[in-house]
Every structure is written in C-alpha cells, then in structure tokens.
Amino acid sequence: MAKVGITETVLRDAHQSLIATRMTTEEMLPMLEMLDAVGFRSLECWGGATFDSCLRFLGEDPWKRLRTLKEHMPNTPLQMLFRGQNMLGYRHYADDVVEYFVQKSVANGIDVIRIFDALNDIRNLETSINAAKKEKGAHVQVAMSYTTSPVHNIESFVAYAKQIEAVGADSICVKDMAGLLTPYVTYDLVKALKENVKLPIQVHSHATAGIADMVLMKAIEAGADVIDTAISPLSGGTSHPATEAMVAALQGTEYDTGLDLLKLTEIAKYAANLRHKYLDSGLLNPKMLEVDVNALIYQVPGGMLSKLVSQLKQAGREDQLEAVLEEVPRVRKDAGYPPLVTPSSQIVGTQAVFNVINGERYKMVTKEFKGLIRGEYGATPVPIDPEFRKKIIGDEKPIECRPADLLEPELDKLRSEISEWYMQEEDVLSYAQFGQVAVKFFEKRRNETYGLDGAHMNVEQGVHPV
After folding, report:
1. What is the pLDDT of residues 229-268, one digit of tens each?
2. Cα 110 to the center of its chain, rounded Å
3. DSSP 243-276
4. Is it true that the peptide bond before 301 is cis, omega within 30 degrees of 0?
C-alpha cells in the first residue's frame, strides 16, 4: 500500500468552498469514471452542504445523486461529512432519526462516514458512531474540529483523540475548516497524535491563508496517513491544496502516493472547463481564490466570510466588515471559544453582525445564540460565565446533559407529516432536515413524475423554482 493516501474533495468540499456547492450531478458525470480509476483512498462526494444545495437550489434528489455516484464509481470508497447529532441540518435530532440516516447513507453507497461535532463534544457523536459501526463495511472516521484559543492546544486535542479512540472510531481526521493550521504546529500535533493513539490520522486543511501545502507536507513528515486535496482547477483559495501538486511533490520519496499524474491530468482538463464556466457565470468569485492571511487572525472560514458580507450588504452596512471581523473573536470568547464550523460559525458570525450594526453589544440576541449559551448544542470548550449567561437567557435553566437526551423519538411523526409526498423511504430524512425546502422539492418531483394532470396533483401548490 502507498505510504500516503489521498482523499479527493472535488465532488464535495472543493465546490462547496468555491461555488457554494452548486456543481450539479450532470456536471460531475463526465469525470466520475476517471476519478474511480485513479486509486484514491476515498472520494468525498456527499454530506456537508451538498444535501441542502441539491434540494434548495439544484432541484435534485440528494439520495439519487449518491446512488448515481456509486454506480459510476464502484471501485473507490465514497465518503461523506456528517455533523453528528445535527446530521446535515442545523439542530439536534432524536436518536432514532440519526440512526436511520446513518443506515440509509450506507445502504445508498457511503463507505466512509466522517463525523464531527462543532463543539468537539463527544456525547454528540456517540449515537452516529454506534449506528455506523452496525453497518457492515462502513468506516467510521471522527473529525476533531481544529481551532486555536487559550484552551485549545496539543494536549487538549490529544485528550480528545483518546476519547475518539475509546468510543470505537476507525480513524481520526484533524479538520482544519478555517485554514488555521501552521506547518510546525501541524507537525507537533500529528506527531503527538501518532504517539498517543493507535488509529490512522488524516489531515484536512483549507488553503485560505496560503500555507496549506506546507501544512500537509509537515503532517506527512510527522506520520499522517492520509491527506485531503482537490483537483487543481478547483483548488487553492478557500478550497484545498492541489491534488496533482501534492502527488508530484511526494513522487519518488518514501511518502509516494502511487497515483498516476497522467490520469489526474485528464481529470484536471475536464475540471478546467468547469472552472471557466463558473468564472464566466459569476458562480466562482475570483476573491475566493485569493490568499487571505487575515484568516489566521479572525478565524473566519471562507463560507462564513461570504455570509457576513451578504448580511452586511442586506443591512446597507458593507463598510463595517472590518468591525464585524474584529467582533467575531470577542463573541467567540463570550460563547466559550467554540470552533467556528457549521452551525457555530453561523451563530457566532450573525451575533457579531447584530452587535456591530445595533451599536450595542447583545442589544439584540438571536434565538440560535441563546441556544448556544443555554447548552442546546452541547458543552462549550470553556464553561459560559454565569453572569453572561444570565444576561443572554435570563432565568432559563441551562442544559447540562447531552442535548439529544431531551428529545423524544420523532421518526414516526415525521413520516406521518409527509405521507402525501412519500415516494422513497429516504424522503422522511430529507424532510426531517429541511422541512418546507424538502416539501417544495417533493412538489416539483411529483409534477415531473406525473405531469400537471397526474394523480393527486394540487396545481395551486406550484412548482419549486430552481
């Protein structure tokens, strides 16, 4: 086996980072057999924001996409990103729904489930880990959300890795979603992980700050088993280091990936056409391809940055972006230093915007920020200051148990709510996460399946625009 494995991200995180997850299945099809022939350790192709984007913007069934990908790439393990108790949505779900989602993901073609929690609260991962371990052939990878703060250091991440090993994961990923890793810190972290746990270590870092290639190289030198990369036309900027560049850099060394550069070049030719198409349509903003060292200062992931800009633009306050970026670390400190990844990045970022445009900190507090402070998302890395918590949630009682312990089973209720639209077992899971967005997709699907005069058609409900 090759010394270093490669997980290719072009079908998920690369286009999520650069073009807001708008690559269609039709655009993917011409490169699938080429990707399958390379010999990647895995192909990340599902989960994250792909599910939401399929339903909300592309008019596609995400489950059908997964089955299509599996059909065209039978030889390569397919990988997804899964938010633990949040699944692919933005709240915690009851255990019966989480278990069913994991079961159906594997049944439809997923081989590797990369599971993470925004707060690195291991309690929020146990249900999905246990569910995945019941599925024959599924590889359970737990990702630690990497961040920096007064309480996040090599010792704390090693302690978390030991928890991950204890709950039965098959491998660990250092998930650097904001591109905060620096080369020598990476070396020390990976070396410490390899010395303290007996699991394969994978490293995932974004190129936002311009140093991710060096980060991956130092990770490899420290013993990392697998790295995440993106085919070159959709690499760099807020995406990942280029696959071909890393393969070439390691060729002929003890870390040789064993991958064929000529095969990768053929994929890159096709992906280059997509890149030009996205640039011409405006989907790919050239700013997403720029190096931004401010990422190391403000810890704002690329997707979060674009959302902050959008929120300020809607409020007519675009000139206050710098003030918001300076406010983000302060809000994060107040909130117990959560890593900034979905959904905590959106919660902290939106609150920072409100603090700035209202001219007074916490004059207006979002429902989600109150939930974070109350403990609805789990335990924050640093306990919330009692005085600050009282200011935000008043006399409400904080949640100290695993949040999902407070949820009743909900799968049967969800099934009954969508009985009118039910066409496949997986529909209940689409609806569970995206509610009316899923219903609009179901309406469109039914219109296309039966035609305007089809059985049970309610024409007044219309067609979901895409």
Report:
1. 999 999 999 999 999 999 999 999 999 999 999 999 999 9
2. 15
3. HHHHHHHHTTSTT-----HHHHHHHHHHHHHHHH
4. no
Q: How far apart are CA 411 and CA 427, in angstroms?
A: 11
d(Cα 46, Cα 67) in Å, to the nearest integer? 11
Which amino acid is residue 313, in one-letter code?
K
Say how far apart CA 226 and CA 221 lie, in whole Å.
12
Tokens of 271: 């992906």
Q: What is the pLDDT of residues 38-66, one digit of tens each?
A: 999 999 999 999 999 999 999 999 999 99
- The residue assigned the tokens 């997850």 is 21
User: Smallest Cα–Cα separation from 84: which of 25, 147, 128?
Assistant: 128
Residue 113 backbone dihedrals phi, psi, to 5 degrees: -105, 110
8 Å CB contact between 146 and 126: no
What is the pLDDT, as a whole number, of residue 462? 33
331: nearest Cα among 366, 288, 295, 285:
366
Q: 38, exposed or middle or buried, with CB in 10 Å at 0-12, 13-18, 19+? A: buried
Q: How far apart are CA 28 and CA 407, in angstroms?
A: 38
**pTM beyond 0.85, yes or no:** yes
Amino acid letter, 355 = N
Q: d(Cα 103, Cα 133) in Å, to the nearest integer?
A: 10
**CA–centroid distance for 218 within its chain:** 24
Name the residue type at position 209.
A
**What region does 382 belong to: left with phi over 0, alpha with psi -120 to 50, or beta?**
beta
How many angstroms separate the Cα of 418 from the Cα of each of 425, 448, 451? 11, 18, 20
